[in-house]
Write a structure and sequence with these properties.
Elements lengths: L22 E4 L2 E12 L7 E9 L2 E9 L7 E9 L2 E9 L11 E14 L2 E12 L8 E7 L7 E2 L14 E9 L5 E9 L4 E9 L7 E2 L3 E2 L18 E6 L4 E7 L15 E7 H6 L5 E6 L1 H4 L3 E7 L12 E9 L14 E9 L5 E5 L8 E9 L4 E8 L13 E7 L5 E3 L3 E3 L7 E7 L8 E9 L5 E10 L3
């Protein structure tokens, strides 16, 4: 039902809306903040980030980007073995190549996968993909691979990039993540590509069973449908780690949430997002990502949460279909930052339960009320992009209308007072206690997602009973 109501809102302009820190009402990933734990903190002016982690029993095998020389920003790949939560060893296992080689400066962003890989007459059990470049800058990145018989190494490099990119001054390709297709040499390699057109995620179907004749498929772009940034706007995909959940036939990824902050450090994310997509869309293209959860300062207490990785099996699978374990990097930030942010990077872990619900984030509302009702909260379903409004009728005040239909409606106005949503009214939206909930699509076309929300009551004949309104932000 659509209706027209005209009255003065001068008094309502004084109503205030207070936004409390957003929290999860229901979620596909429900984080247990009580098990948040530091995993690895290198001493001195050293950093570790971009973890890739495989757990076998009580042993965690972790590979990270890491500097070797105190106070020098130059990436190598470290292997860290953790026994029963205690670091047992940590040392470099893959370093930059010789001068003149394609990976002669940085090697970073490791991902490890099991299989059977024949290289130079030896059959290896594991492949390690990594980003490498030959410049002291964030450009000319390419993806290489190395092989080992044990998870701890020794790793033997394949001499050429497995995914090459021209030296055209742009970012290139990197941030690899792999899942096995057949347990042998066939796998899906996921990665980021950045050029003059855009930055985005891709996947390649490849078979490295015999490195004398590797089979490398075409790079297929991954959709961005369903990805939203911290302001609820369409987002892009980069710096993600991905695992496969065979129980649901879905790929689950942890990715950096945009936009990056304006304060220092402004080149890493404040929050990470857990998303998933069906297997058919990864293989065939298209599809829509589902937002499963957000990992940011409300959960961790850190101002920066970035470069995340998901716990996986040696085949790149989700170990437990009921849980997600995220390993991520934290950082200090302004105004509490002194020196290079990189030297504050260390690795943390948090676990969350995984179910098949949608993630719904909630904002508590205060002082949003009229004489006949109060609005208590506003929610956003990140999968359906539906706004929910929750509140309570004052049964004593609406007693004259209790024996007839009561309609609860909404309107949304932009900053200039223009009506942007026509305002559907919902019949009998309240239960016997007076609690009510109405939902509607997230409004579009509002500058900075800011507008004025009106909630109103109508009687059975469409006559106004009461209303309340306030400025709100529809970003979560």
């Amino acid at each position: 039902m659509k209706t027209r109501v005209s009255w003065c809102f001068a008094v309502l302009a004084l109503v205030l809306l207070v936004l409390l820190p957003w929290q999860t009402a229901t979620a596909a990933v429900l984080w247990d903040t009580g098990n948040l734990a530091k995993v690895y903190d290198p001493a001195g002016s050293r950093y570790a980030y971009a973890p890739a982690v495989i757990r076998e029993g009580n042993t965690e095998h972790m590979w990270t980007c890491h500097n070797e020389e105190d106070g020098v920003i130059k990436d190598s790949i470290y292997y860290t073995r953790i026994e029963n939560g205690v670091v047992a060893e940590s040392h470099p296992v893959l370093q930059a190549g010789a001068t003149g080689t394609w990976d002669s400066f940085h090697v970073c962003d490791p991902t490890v996968i099991a299989g059977k890989f024949l290289f130079q007459g030896t059959e290896y059990n594991y492949a390690l993909f990594y980003l490498g470049n030959d410049l002291n800058m964030s450009a000319h990145n390419q993806i290489g691979v190395a092989f080992a018989t044990e998870l701890s190494g020794e790793w033997v490099k394949y001499p050429d990039p497995i995914v090459a990119y021209p030296n055209d001054g742009y970012w290139g390709v990197g941030q690899p993540s792999a899942t096995s297709v057949d347990g042998q040499g066939r796998l899906l390699l996921f990665f980021t590509k950045g050029d003059a057109a855009a930055t985005g995620g891709y996947r390649i179907d490849m078979n490295l069973r015999d490195m004398s004749d590797p089979v490398i498929g075409d790079a297929v772009p991954l959709t961005t449908n369903g990805l939203t940034d911290a302001n609820g706007q369409p987002d892009w995909l980069n710096n993600f780690d991905i695992t496969y959940d065979p129980s649901r036939d879905r790929f689950i990824a942890i990715r950096e949430l945009h936009p990056y902050p304006s304060t220092q450090p402004n080149y890493i994310s404040e929050s990470l997002q857990i998303v998933s997509i069906d297997g058919g869309s990864v293989w065939g293209g298209g599809g829509t990502w589902k937002v499963e959860g957000v990992l940011g300062s409300p959960q961790t207490g850190f101002p920066r949460n970035h470069n995340g990785g998901l716990l996986r099996t040696v085949n790149g699978m989700l170990p437990d279909p009921t849980a997600v374990e995220a390993y991520f990097t934290d950082s200090d930030a302004a105004p509490n930052l002194s020196g290079r942010a990189e030297y504050t990077y260390d690795i943390w872990r948090i676990k969350g339960t995984l179910n098949d619900a949608d993630i719904v984030t909630e904002k508590k509302l205060e002082h949003f009320k009229s004489s006949h009702f109060a609005v208590s909260s506003m929610t956003l379903n990140a999968t359906s992009n539906q706004i929910g409004i929750q509140g309570m009728l004052d049964l004593k005040k609406i007693k004259p209308w209790l024996n007839e239909t009561v309609w609860i409606g909404y309107r949304v106005y932009d900053a200039k007072g223009n009506l942007t949503d026509a305002g559907t009214a919902y019949r009998d939206a309240a239960d016997a206690s007076g609690a009510f909930r109405i939902s509607f699509p997230k409004p579009k076309g509002l500058a900075h997602d800011e507008g004025r929300l009106e909630v109103y009551l109508l009687n059975a004949k469409g006559k106004p009973i009461d209303s309340a309104a306030s400025k709100v932000t529809f970003s979560f």
